[in-house]
Amino acid sequence: MVERVKAGVKRTVIATTWVLLAAGAAACDKVPLLAPSGSTINLSASTKVLPVNGSTGLTAFVTESGGTPVQNGTTVRFTTTLGSVQPVETQTVNGIAVALFQAGPSSGVAEIHALSGNAGGSGSTSGTGTGTTSTAQNVVTITIGSAAVNTVTLRANPGSIGPGGGSVELVATVVGESGNGLQSIPVTFNADQGVLSAQTVPTDVNGEARTLLTTGQKTTVTATAGTKTSTAVIVDARTGPGISITCAVAAGGGTGTTCAAVQATPSNTATVQFTVTKGTSTSNFRDTTLDFGDGTSQGLGNLAGGAVVVTHTYNGPSGSSPVGYTAIARATDVNGETASASSTVTVTARAPLGVTITAGAPSTPSGGRTTVAFTANVTPAVGGADVAQSFDWDFGDGTTATTSGKDTSHVYNSGSGREVVKVTVHTTDGRSATGQTEINVP
To answer: For an engineered disulfide with 136, which of 34, 123, 164, 265 has Cβ 3.0 to 4.6 Å away?
Structure first.
């Protein structure tokens, strides 16, 4: 009986021992393997600057005091002040533990630590913001988004607008401390005049953000990224060319006081004088042209002297209706801007051609003959080298004659009594007129 009791107790002790050993083994599996005292962690990141929502790899190299890698499976834990690390805990292989840092949507400076047991990194961490520096081997800082901005520069293309307004492209360049362009950084443009196509624009892969400014006057613009603002850029409004034109009737060029109604000369022309003037406080001209409106034009140069006077002759109407011409002065300045001014010339029909006859006193009859002198008075006056004339006379007694001048005489039979004398004048431009008078031949 006693032997059976002893055997049962022995079996119980053995069973209990196996349970305790199993429990101890299970407890050992749940305790992570950590770096031993005196170990060192060297933490590095693939990049130290990230855009918002960007990511980069982390590498922690853990070595024991003797410089050899820690045992495989040693647990390393990561912490960060901004963004997140995945996974938070990982195990070493050949002393190396890797993880992924994800920046998240906020700008700032993330301070990341790698921890394992009593291991640490020599050195220290100091400063805040983009100026944070760390000499601790188990700490790394990553600058995120706008916090990485070091400078913002701004340029406008083109740098000015024309006198009628226009659009210019604004280009902001955002760079970090290394001088490289930063991508995906929001840039806010500000303009004191005009309209922006977009006020806030993210930078591209070259660190540039672009928007379009449309304005009609001088405009000051800036660009801001993070805490940095560019130097102000002035988009100037260029002064355009200013030009004017006046017209006056030239001496002997026609009858009339203004170019709006010039009666043609007997030769059916009108001559006027144009004065083309460069405006004050205007841009420098490259060239100026005066188009007379009759199919002809004349270059006037750059009007460096301020004004120029040009004389031009127009043809009159072919009938009784007036004929109009529009003279246009066109100026182009050194910036390619243009301006024009115009003046209208209206040429009315020349005065109707008329002729009257002045008869002199009959001579005293002699030998049955009486002589009478005649003068054809033409209005308006014609003659001269450009308008020759001829006169066809009918003296009323069946006798006719043609003269080249306006004066003539005729011998009548004395006592003829009443005679009707006629004359028809012809001009070289195809016009004619007829006049008559009565005389009494004693």
So the answer is: 123
The CATH number that domain 243-348 falls under is: 2.60.40.10
Nearest 10 degrees: Cα torsion 212, 214, 217, 218: 0
Which pair of tokens denotes residue 45?
A: 């990141």
Separation CA 191–CA 170 (nearest Å)? 10
Residue whose C-alpha is closest to residue 147's, from 245, 48, 17: 48
CB 283 within 8 A of CB 334: yes
pLDDT of res. 9: 34
Tokens found for residue 326:
């529009």
Tokens 């021992």 belong to 17
- d(Cα 157, Cα 284) in Å, to the nearest integer? 22
CA 5 to chain centre: 110
Is residue 368 packed enough to be buried (19+ CB in 10 Å), middle (13-18) or exposed (0-12)? exposed
CATH of domain 354-441: 2.60.40.10
CATH 2.60.40.10 for domain 40-148, yes or no, is: yes
What kind and span of H or E run contains 20? helix 2-30
Q: Where along the chain do its domains lie?
A: 40-148, 156-174+181-237, 243-348, 354-441
Q: What is the pLDDT of residues 214-273, one digit of tens each?
A: 999 999 999 999 999 999 999 999 999 999 999 999 998 998 889 999 999 878 899 999
Closest CA to 207 of 179, 229, 234, 169: 179
DSSP 3-state of 148: helix
pLDDT of residue 73 exceeding 60: yes
Output the CA angle 280-283-286, nearest 5 degrees.
120
**In whole angstroms, what is the distance from residue 417 CA to residue 414 CA?**
8
CATH, range 156-174+181-237: 2.60.40.10
Helices (H) and strands (E) in the chain, counts: 1, 36
Look at residue 30 in the predicted model and tell me its pLDDT: 62
172 and 157 in contact (C-beta within 8 Å)? no
For 227, other C-beta atoms within 10 Å of its C-beta total 12
Written as six digits, the tokens of 8 are 């049962």
Chain position carrying tokens 């005649």: 374
Residue holding tokens 């188990």?
Answer: 138
Average pLDDT over residues 408-420: 94
